[in-house]
């Protein structure tokens, strides 16, 4: 699995449709201060479902929509798509070409798509959980994040290692199964009670 391309339209400083293709090997993004290099990383985090606007250097949801510039009018929506080669089926879905899209409108409404079909944010999280490229993953290390990791508490460090080792998905599934078990136990207790009161 690898990232093939990123398409940005109306997101932060990218007023018009811009496609960035990632070749095999290392890609470097260079440019003057304030030219939008970090906005590219923000776009990747955002399309992967980032919910914390602080993590993508914004104060509120609409901050990610192009707000106007030299001879350019502000946009009403922003859209980012990530194209992924999934030939090796690293992502647990049938597609070999995967396109993940996130859109936001001025109203603050967010929409998510998998290969142009509408999906939920939860589906995106599940798709990338334990793959190393989810929103909680450490594939995108922003400025200052290294210091934050070094300064993490033992509990936070454990969470980082669990995500990297791929056990987080199993932990979430265990939590869900435990909740279901608890519900079933409650139902059995209710049935026992009704049975006893009838006998
Ligand atoms: P540096 O090298 O200094 O870290 P950079 O190349 O990483 O800079 P970014 O931080 O990605 O630059 O981009 C900052 C630019 O993005 C600023 O000029 C800012 O005005 C612009 N910008 C951010 N959000 C928006 C928005 N919603 N609409 C228009 N422009 C925006």
Automatic annotation (TrEMBL):
Q: What is the top-level taxon of the source organism?
A: Bacteria
Q: Which keywords belong to this entry?
A: Coiled coil, Cytoplasm, DNA-binding
Look up the coiled coil feature and give its residue ranges. Answer: 157-194
Q: Which GO terms describe its molecular function?
A: DNA binding
Q: Where is the RecF/RecN/SMC N-terminal domain?
A: 2-136
Q: Is rRNA processing one of the keywords UniProt gives this record?
A: no
Q: Which residues cross the membrane?
A: none
A GO cellular component annotation in the UniProt record: cytoplasm
Indicate yes or no for the key word Transmembrane helix.
no
Name of the molecule in the record: AAA family ATPase
């Amino acid at each position: 699995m690898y990232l093939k391309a990123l398409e940005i339209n109306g997101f932060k400083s990218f007023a018009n449709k811009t496609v960035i293709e990632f070749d095999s090997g290392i890609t470097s993004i260079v440019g003057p201060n304030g030219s939008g290099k970090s906005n590219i990383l923000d776009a990747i985090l955002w399309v992967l479902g980032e919910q914390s606007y602080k993590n993508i250097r914004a104060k509120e949801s609409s901050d990610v929509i192009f707000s106007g510039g030299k001879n350019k009018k502000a946009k009403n929506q922003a859209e980012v798509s990530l194209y992924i080669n999934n030939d090796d089926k690293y992502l647990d879905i049938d597609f070999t070409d995967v396109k993940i899209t996130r859109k936001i409108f001025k109203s603050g409404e967010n929409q998510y798509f998998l290969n142009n079909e509408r999906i939920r944010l939860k589906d995106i999280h599940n798709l990338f959980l334990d793959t190393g490229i989810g929103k909680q993953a450490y594939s995108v290390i922003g400025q200052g994040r290294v210091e934050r990791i070094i300064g993490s508490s033992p509990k936070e460090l454990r969470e980082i290692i669990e995500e990297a080792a791929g056990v987080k998905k199993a932990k979430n599934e265990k939590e869900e199964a435990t909740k279901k078990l608890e519900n079933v136990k409650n139902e059995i207790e209710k049935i026992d009670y009704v049975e006893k009161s009838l006998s």
